[in-house]
What we know:
By secondary structure, chain A is α/β, with parallel strands linked by helices. Chain A has helices at residues 13-25, 64-74, 81-100, 133-148, 213-220, 248-251, 265-268, 278-290, 312-318, 320-330, 385-404, 415-427, 438-452, 459-476, 490-514, 532-535; strands at 4-9, 31-35, 51-52, 115-116, 126-127, 151-154, 156-164, 167-175, 181-191, 225-226, 231-238, 255-257, 303-306, 339-348, 351-353, 365-367, 372-373, 456-457, 523-524, 537-544, 547-554.
Amino acid sequence: MKPFDIVIVGGGGAGLYAAMEAMKTNPALNIAVLSKVYPNRSHTSAAQGGANAALANKAKDDTVELHIFDTIKGSDYLADQDAVDILCSEAPKIIRELDNIGTPWSRLEDNTIAQRPFGGAGRPRCCYCADKTGHTILQTLYEQCLKKGVFFFNEYFALQLSLHDSRMKGLIAMNMKTGKIEAFPARTVLFATGGYAKMYWNRSSNAAGNTGDGQAIAYRAGIPLKDMEFVQFHPTGLRKSGLLVTEGARGEGGYLINALGERFMSRYAPEKMELGPRDLVSRSIETEILQGRGFDSPAGKYVHLDLTHLGADLIKSRLPQIREMSMYFEGVDPIDEPIPVRPTAHYSMGGIDTDNYGRTVMDGVYAAGECACVSVHGANRLGGNSLLDILVFGRIAGHTAAEEAGKFEPSPITADEIAATEARLRSYMQPSGHFERYGILREELGQTLGQNVGIYREASKIRKGVADLRELQERFTHVRVNDTSDVFNTNLMQVLELKNMLDLAETVAAGALAREESRGSHTRTDFPQRDDEKWHKHTIATIEGDRVKLGEKPVTMGRYELQERTY
Amino acid sequence: MTGAKEAHTEPKRDITLRVHRFNPQVDGKPYFDDYTIQVEKGITVLRALNYIKEHVDASVSFRAFCQAGICGSCGMRINGISKLACTTQVWDELDRCKEPGVIRIEPLRNMPLIKDLIVDMDPLVDKMKHYSNWVVSSMPESRMGKKEFLVSEEEFQKYDKATDCILCASCVSECTILRAHKEYVSPAILLKSYRMNVDSRDSIHDARLGELVKDHGVWDCTHCYRCQETCVKHIPIMDAIHGIREDALEVRGVKDSSGAKHAEAFMSDIEKKGKLVEATLPIRTNGMAWTLQNLLPMAMKMIMKRRTPPPPPLVKPAKGIKKFREMFREMTEHVRAEKKSHKK
Ligand SMILES: Cc1cc2nc3c(=O)[nH]c(=O)nc-3n(C[C@H](O)[C@H](O)[C@H](O)COP(=O)(O)OP(=O)(O)OC[C@H]3O[C@@H](n4cnc5c(N)ncnc54)[C@H](O)[C@@H]3O)c2cc1C
Ligand code: SF4
Ligand code: SF4
Ligand code: FES
């Protein structure tokens, strides 16, 4: 195959924006976008709330500077301030650009793009399209890429980087439709594969495929990952699926009730009750469950989100989506019965370590979106800043790759390498020595992470988690792929995704164990305070043999000094 | 603890999923496998399928991603109806089984089968491209990012519902015309085309419309309403289809010379329906010219008010023909009466 100038792995918001920008930067380039699902199915479509930008349409006194401050404070001062500058300064431009190419937005009375308040923001600056902002942004980007003639390889599953003495030669991927392993020799590869919060499995709001493939591929190729221990939990996920019940339910007056029938938030936030900040409510629910006051079920322990006292009328008119979700996914009508909920892993702050231009330490390899860590979110991402991140840094990374592609000489990927990859995948199908069920390993992975590296962390529990992960890795070597067919082997794909999650889970656990402080989403019960002296820095995870090696990197400061984070 | 007990008494029962199987590498033709599993109340069809894949037969193949009804991956036919597996409750389906306790799971129709429950989505993407399902902005690229367009909430409302579409292809699977003609534009594509055409930021309205009125385009639709009844997002797809027709006839028809072409297309449309309903239509009695001249505007008005009874779907001719015939008779009489009163 003729070498590509840029191979973009991922067709979510980050990947598509990168593709568009790369084509704009240099239309002569030969660009491919690979995605394991049709791009319009990417998880960007799940974002309901919106994207932040200081357009000042709603609050006339909003400024980029205020947005910058909110983001840095929200990050618990772990974000790099120069990166946050870029994020927030580019925001108004990128939202307008999206509008200019046809993204539907809800509108204000003066016909400008509508904005609403969002957690952690001092002004209403979250731009939205009803409750489907991510979906409409993704649709628009996909449509524009089709218009521009971007070359899509849909339902291709990226497997590994092809390296020659740590020089990148391209990408190896599996064509799901045929099962064939194909080589993509390339001057540059840009990862935009989304987050890894699905490693918490049924305790995650993420799509089944948010398994951190890009991060795992990069990590195994020797590229460092950053701040992997930071995973954001949302307080109210549905018990069975982890899917989100949005804050609206509590906003309208829903109660959180434990198995003893108590409105337990009175213990943790007597004034704000259910309306306390996300992390506090998550921790409170978790405490109730840990202290045995939760309900029990085969799908795990949980508490009740009770809306029944709000009455059918209010539920139908104000919370129709939440009602629909409860009925679809739990079979519970919140008019008659309380909704079973528990905290759910929602967003991964950590990812592939990049500079402000999307470059990784490896020549020709770039990353953007949730799979990258620039870092603009630090220890805690603000709602509405993630869509912004994927757009702004998707575009920047696409631009950089396009500018720099010419610097790298392509070299062929050998047939031997393809054959070796094929043999490795085939080996999972051999009966002898392969007996472990991937479904069980996957469930146990989610369980041990939830229990030991979840909302509350402490040294002894994390160590237990680390040991469990080692054992799961060992058992994984015996995993069996029962489907031996070539065409659309989703069994094989899910097993490979499991391996990616296992590898990344070790970096999450290692970071969590090392970071002896509590900051943002990372709560250590044995180190309840933020410790700026020792831990105002990023953790860096690289692979050594098959173990995680931890390093560190300073946080780039700027105009804002460290302060206590209070709201 | 009371809570614990409560949860464990959640009702459970045995159900059977009768799943369509086909592996192109070994199977000459598709067949069905029965999987009987125990499920508790509150389980979706997708979770039941996942359970089967994880615990019973790992080779059962289907697409799923978000598990939340937003990505559009898991469209399949459940008990004969195209819908999303991830938003469908097993217990609800139990009431719809032909054979008690047996839920039939089949792939979407009207798209090439790849394996088990997986069909090829590429033809749909090709149609998106063919009908330019994207906005070609009226703003030059060099000016972008500086200013937003001003768009009224009212205009946004015009395409708000249409942008709910998640391209799950359930409507495509149920479309009666597509069964016979794979080239037909498809309901989801008509919906998307409409969405682009009512967007004031777009600049290729006429070209897109020109494509839509050609062969296999908007005039081929039989108004059977199947797509709208099926839509998993409850989008009024027919509004879009009517909107495009209305646009093609009323706006363009008077203003530019392509109007004749549209009329021609409509004629062939009526002719097609005429064929469907045999020789009993007023077209026969009144002649084509008369029909076009007099009934067309009326028909369009009715269509706009959405009072048009659906013309006969190909599957159930008897009932439809009757309705269609009635409608035309009613219209003929109405127009005749109007003409008379004008003459007076
Ligand atoms: C329920 C929910 C609600 C949210 N709401 C908001 C919100 O209101 N505001 C906000 O700012 N953020 C929100 N977020 C976060 C935000 O949606 C995501 O962070 C963001 O969309 C990620 O975009 P992305 O482009 O990086 O990745 P994704 O959209 O996840 O795309 C990843 C792409 O990579 C591809 N891919 C992955 N692995 C492979 C592989 N091995 N081979 C080939 N392709 C691969 C996938 O096919 C996909 O195309 C929400 C998240 C969730 C879960
Ligand atoms: S109304 Fe038209 S587009 Fe919809 S299903 Fe019937 S023929 Fe197809
Ligand atoms: S119109 Fe409805 S049924 Fe058709 S693809 Fe879109 S969402 Fe699915
Ligand atoms: S899995 Fe996404 S719509 Fe069903």
